[in-house]
Specification:
Elements: H1 4-17, E1 34-38, E2 41-44, E3 49-52, H2 55-58, H3 67-79, H4 91-103, E4 108-114, H5 117-134, E5 142-146, H6 155-159, E6 179-181, H7 198-207, E7 211-216, E8 220-221, E9 227-228, H8 231-243, E10 247-251, E11 275-278, E12 290-295, H9 296-304, H10 320-335, H11 338-353, E13 362-368, E14 371-376, H12 382-391, E15 394-395, E16 402-405, H13 413-428
Parallel strand pairs: 3-15, 5-6, 5-7, 7-10, 10-11
Antiparallel strand pairs: 1-2, 2-3, 4-12, 8-9, 11-12, 13-14, 14-16
Helix pairs in contact: 3-10, 4-10, 5-9, 11-13, 12-13
The chain binds 4'-deoxy-4'-aminopyridoxal-5'-phosphate.
The site of 4'-deoxy-4'-aminopyridoxal-5'-phosphate has 14 residues, from helix 5.
Pathway: Cofactor biosynthesis; biotin biosynthesis; 7,8-diaminononanoate from 8-amino-7-oxononanoate (SAM route): step 1/1
Family: Belongs to the class-III pyridoxal-phosphate-dependent aminotransferase family. BioA subfamily.
EC number: 2.6.1.62
Length: 432
């Protein structure tokens, strides 16, 4: 059992030397030390057992320490943990790919594995560039997207994140200039107004000849503001991309594997993207792995024209342990009514969070699938609010004006009840 002085010593070392996400090198507050995690709970060394409202940045879709995924990893570990993927392959990757292809839009036929969502986005963008190069149209080499988007923290992924309100503004003068259309305004579930696409159409009309691809998060703009938009927007965008000969990249890293109430958010619009990225929940949030999927057409064009290969090959591509975890996660998805469970979570989130609208500090409450968002009028004091959540047995991590919940997709009604109660109590005690 770790004693209090031990914990403090570990955290002091951590604070001094370990750089955490979106943090100063030495932050004002230390992190919380996790001892274990099981199901939807995180056990802190300090004694608190917290119900996890974020599923570790939306990735741990089946909960922590799941016996089926644990077993798959251990079994693979006893066979081999890694082999290079050039010239060699393995059963874990084959089985994973077979399962993945049964779930994704049917036109997607080629799967390129990588280690993180941002890298999967870089790969998607490179694929689009190579596609047009192979087509003998190298001038098609820029990208378009919508405002309020988020696609990752690496170089070109940053260039298609929101240029003003995103996290990357200080890098703007060093990023490749891309083209931004207005973000979708018609919300999910509200009346569709075709004028929402005017800005996209104007952009495609003006720049279509130089655009390699249009990249977008389908239906949910996540880290860029947790906005849910109308499926008709995505449908009309796909039609415009096809008319202006611009590839469509659907970034399903946050939305894939059931999060929005469909297996992939593209399904809301019946759209088959040319290229799609997945990550986060791919391995059930166990180990890093992402994938970029390409249509048969994109794969064929890149492969049948000079240089005849796709120029990318990460060292840990298709890592067998990650592939085994991902395959086990997909087996769980295929064997369980996960999408139906998301519908239950959605109903309960709506019922439980909507009363937050009565709080005068709250600007909006919205729910889609297993995503619940309370948008405040002002940016919150995260440390303060997080402490209140912890005092109420909840792990949640608000950002900006947004307090959001993205629980594991297997969260049971009594657990969700507890999570919602903790969040609502924390919020009502919060004064900035
Ligand atoms: N795209 C989207 C839509 C995301 O939500 C994220 C991560 N929040 C990424 C890309 C980047 O993924 P990663 O953090 O694994 O690099």
């Amino acid at each position: 059992m770790t004693t209090q002085p031990d914990i403090e010593q570990l955290l002091a070392f951590d604070r001094q030397h370990i750089w955490h996400p979106y943090s100063p090198a030495v932050p004002a507050q230390p992190c919380h030390l996790v001892e274990s995690a099981r199901g939807v709970y995180i056990q802190l060394a300090s004694g608190e057992k917290l119900i996890d409202g974020v599923s570790s940045w939306w990735a741990v879709i089946h909960g922590y320490n799941h016996p089926h995924i644990n077993k798959a990893i251990v079994d693979q570990l006893h066979k081999f943990s890694h082999v290079m993927f050039a010239g060699l392959t393995h059963r874990a990757a084959i089985s994973l790919t077979r399962n993945l292809l049964t779930l994704v839009p049917a036109n997607l036929q080629h799967v390129f594995y990588s280690d993180s969502g941002s890298v999967a986005v870089e790969i998607a963008m490179k694929m689009a560039l190579q596609y047009w190069h192979a087509m003998g149209r190298p001038p098609k080499c820029t990208f378009a997207t919508v405002r309020s988007g988020y696609h990752g923290d690496t170089w070109h992924a940053m260039s298609v994140c929101d240029p003003q309100d995103g996290m990357h503004t200080i890098f703007n003068n060093r990023l490749t200039i891309q083209h931004f259309a207005d973000e979708p305004h018609c919300r999910f579930g509200e009346t569709w107004d075709a004028r929402d696409l005017d800005s996209v159409e104007a952009l495609l009309e003006q720049y279509g000849a130089e655009l390699a691809a249009f990249i977008i998060e389908p239906i949910v703009q996540g880290a860029g503001g947790m906005r849910f938009y109308h499926p008709e927007y995505l449908k009309a965008l796909a039609a415009l991309c096809s008319r202006y000969e611009v590839l469509l990249i659907a970034d399903e890293i946050a939305t894939g594997f059931g999060r929005t109430g469909r297996m992939f958010a593209c399904e809301w619009a019946g759209v088959q993207p040319d290229i799609m990225t997945v990550g986060k929940g791919l391995t059930g949030g166990y180990v890093p792995m992402a994938a970029t999927l390409a249509s048969a057409q994109v794969g064929a064009v890149i492969s049948q024209n000079a240089p005849g290969i796709f120029i990318h090959g990460p060292t840990f591509m298709g890592n067998p342990i990650a592939a085994a975890a991902a395959n086990a996660s997909l087996e769980l998805i295929m064997d369980s009514p996960i999408v139906a469970n998301v519908a239950c979570i959605e109903a309960q989130l709506k019922q439980g969070l909507m009363p937050a609208r009565d709080n005068p500090a709250v600007a909006d409450v919205r729910v889609l699938g297993a995503i619940g968002v309370i948008e405040m009028k002002e940016a919150v004091d995260r440390e303060k609010l997080q402490a209140l959540f912890i005092a109420n047995g909840v792990w949640a991590r608000p950002f900006g004006k947004l307090v959001y919940l993205m629980p594991a997709l297997i969260m049971a009604p009594d657990e969700l009840e507890k999570l919602i109660r903790g969040v609502m109590k924390g919020l009502s005690a919060y004064a900035p």
